[in-house]
Amino acid sequence: MTALAAPPTAPETGRPTQDPPGRRVRKGGAGQTMKGSWLSYLILGFALLISAFPFYWTIVAASRSNADMAKVPPSLLPGPNLIKNFEQVLEEANIGKALLNSLIVSSSITIGTVLCCTLAGFAFAKLKFKGRNALLTLTIGTMMIPPQLGVIPLFMLIAELQWVNQLQAVILPGLVSAFGVFFMRQYLVQSLPDELIEAARVDGASTARIFWSIVIPIARPGMAVLGMLTFMTAWNDFFWPIIALSSQEPTVQVALRQLGGGYVNDQSVIMAGTLPVLIVFGLLGRQIVGGIMQGAVKG
Questions:
Q1: E strands in 83-125
Q2: Integer Cα distance of 254 and 259 in angstroms
Q3: Are 245 and 173 in contact (CB under 8 A)?
């Protein structure tokens, strides 16, 4: 007969070791981990396919004719008409100039909104002056007013200033937003200690020096998030640019409206016109997200 193996003993006492009560011995740990990882990769891969399919379909639709798009079922492979459709886009709408105008408008609005809203948020959060709460309530109250109500007086104003069909007619009305002021005010209330401001004042720093040297470094993550939201909103804005601008000085949304004209919209031409927009937005989106992460780490 074979001898039974003795239970393991502790080297200090020589007594057999026992598992603590309530502890479960893990069986098949490596197999379960491998199974869980494969299941996770499968789910993530399926989600990636669903997310990437609209972009792939845009390429397929931009490379085919409108008749191919109307077939049932439609083709899922790219066609030979991509260059032809893109040439038609350049004839019907000035996409290159529209991209440049949208970049100028969105960047200007983003920079102005971030700086002005951070300054106003700092004033409402940490500075004490008469009427502060009333002004903050009035600012927040403007968010409940539909923007369509101010279109007519705003257009009369830019017509009086002779700014119709000029980019400043779209840039200046969007330099400050009530949401941005409230967002930065709430962020600075939580992130900026009052003791830090008091210590700076004891050292003789002015309000402007406190803002540039203390507030902006602390508010950098919030400013990055506000900048991303503002840039996306300004880039996708259609309502006011279609009123203030014309086809000679369009933004991207105004230029895309000119594509596929006629009794039946040419969806292939419209999709071809969106390809440069998707490429530019993909490049800018990567930089924006990188800026947010960098600001969050340094902040």
A1: none
A2: 10
A3: no
Are residues 267 and 58 in contact, defined by beta-carbon separation less than 8 angstroms? no
Instruction: Report whether the peptide linkage leading into residue 73 is cis, meaning its omega lies within 30 degrees of zero.
Output: yes
Amino acid letter, 152: I
Euclidean distance between CA atoms 79 and 245, whole angstroms: 35
What is the rounded CA–CA span in Å between residue 299 and residue 294?
8
In whole angstroms, give the CA distance from residue 141 to residue 183: 14
Residue 92: count of CB within 10 angstroms of its CB: 17
At 63, list the tokens: 């490379």
Distance of CA 104 to the CA centre of its chain: 17
Confidence tier at 298 by pLDDT (50, 70, 90): very low
Per-residue confidence (pLDDT) for residue 156, from 0 to 100? 92
- Short-list 171, 182, 188, 106, CA closest to 142: 182
C-beta separation of 214 from 197 below 8 A = yes
Count other Cβ atoms within 10 Å, centred on residue 10: 10
Residue for token digits 């700092």?
122
Q: pLDDT tens digit string along 119-167? A: 999 999 988 888 888 999 999 898 888 888 888 999 999 999 989 889 9
